[in-house]
C-alpha cells in the first residue's frame, strides 16, 4: 500500500512536468526561423502582463520588442541609437484580433504629423525604418480572405498538446502544429508595420494564429509545386516566473529616449 507521502511525491512530479491548463503561461520560449538561407534565433520572455521578444544573434544591435498583453501596445527598442517608439494596438494586427480581423485587418497607425520625407538607407536597428528596409510580418489591408483549417491531427510537443492546421494562398501551403496552452502568437518586428494592398502568406499567418489564441511549435510554408520557403521551430520551452534580475527587461531603459512613430505606415 502506497503511503500518503508517496502519493504526494507522485502528484508533485506529475504537476512539475505538466503545463497547468487554464493558467497564464510564464517563462521562456526559444525558437529559430529560417528563410532564404538565413537563420534567425529568437527568445520570448513571457510574464502574465508582458512579452519581450529579441533576436539572439550578436552580429548587430537588433531591435527588441516589448508587448503589453493587456493593452496590446508594442514598444520597439533600438539599441543602436538608444531610442524607442510605442505603437498602439491599431498598428499591431498580430496581437489578439477578432475573427473578422483575419480577413479584414484594421488600417495601420497613421503616424505622427511632421515631415513626409522618408529617411533612406537606414540600417536595421537604428530607429524607425524606411519602407526600403525589410521588416518582419507586415500589417495591412487585403481583399483576399484567408482561413486556418484544423486537420484533426493532434500530438504532444515539449509537453504541450497541439493540433495541426493548414492554410493556403496563391499556391503556397502553410502547415503548423500549434498549441493554445502558451500565448497568442506575437511576431518579432524589426520596424513599424507598413500598409500593403495584398500581403503574402508569410506576412498573414501570425494574425491567423493569434485569432485562435494559438502559438506555433512547428511551422512551414512551401510552394505546392516547389520547395519549402519558410520554417519556424521551437527549440526550448522553460516555464516559470521570470528571475528577479530580469524584471527590468520589460520596460525601456531609463537612458533611452522616446521617439514619435514615423509616417511610413501611412505613406504606402
Textual characterization of the structure:
The chain is mainly β and 268 residues long. It has one domain (24-266): Lipoprotein localisation LolA/LolB/LppX (outer membrane lipoprotein receptor (LolB), chain A), CATH 2.50.20. It has 3 helices and 12 strands. It has helices spanning 4-16, 99-103, 201-211, and strands spanning 27-35, 38-46, 50-55, 64-68, 74-78, 83-87, 149-157, 160-169, 172-179, 215-223, 228-239, 257-258. A 12-stranded mixed β-sheet has the order 7-8-9-10-11-1-2-3-4-5-6-12, with helices on one face. The radius of gyration is 20 Å and the shape is globular. The N and C termini lie far apart (73 Å).
What is the strand and helix layout of this fold?
Elements: H1 4-16, E1 27-35, E2 38-46, E3 50-55, E4 64-68, E5 74-78, E6 83-87, H2 99-103, E7 149-157, E8 160-169, E9 172-179, H3 201-211, E10 215-223, E11 228-239, E12 257-258
Parallel strand pairs: 6-12
Antiparallel strand pairs: 1-2, 1-11, 2-3, 3-4, 4-5, 5-6, 7-8, 8-9, 9-10, 10-11
Count every beta strand, where a strand is a DSSP E run of 2 or more residues. Answer: 12
Percentage of residues assigned to helices: 10-25%
Q: Ends: how far apart?
A: 73 Å
Give the CATH class.
Mainly Beta
What's the CATH topology label? outer membrane lipoprotein receptor (LolB), chain A
Task: Average the pLDDT over all residues and give the rounded result.
Answer: 75
Low-confidence stretches: 4-22, 93-126, 129-143, 263-268
Outline? globular
SSE sequence, one letter per element: HEEEEEEHEEEHEEE
Count of individual helical segments: 3
Report strand %: 25-35%
Rg, rounded, reads: 20 Å
Full CATH superfamily name: Lipoprotein localisation LolA/LolB/LppX
